[in-house]
Specification:
The chain is mostly helical and 82 residues long. The chain has four helices and no strands.
């Protein structure tokens, strides 16, 4: 699993500190992003039932990326406690 240290050169805690937020705040932000993306995806699918809309795929891919990120954040948070 790739860590914040690998990507940004700082720990998750240092990353959050640089942004002036806590790890919990970051997790809440990503959870809110996921909620917004799910709502947007639902709107797009309902609106364009029979039309191929490239935005649907883009929103879906972003949603999946955020869900993976949330899972990693929660895992890193647990690891930092240990």
């Amino acid at each position: 699993m790739t860590s914040y240290q690998d990507i940004y050169g700082v720990s998750l805690g240092e990353y959050c500190q640089a942004h002036g937020i806590s790890v919990v705040d970051l997790i809440k932000k990503v959870e809110t992003d996921i909620k917004l993306l799910k709502n947007r995806l639902r709107e797009l699918v309902d609106k364009d039932e029979y039309v191929v809309n490239p935005l649907i795929n883009e929103v879906y891919q972003t949603l999946k990326k955020k869900e993976k990120h949330l899972k990693r954040l929660k895992g890193w948070k647990l690891n930092e406690k240990n």
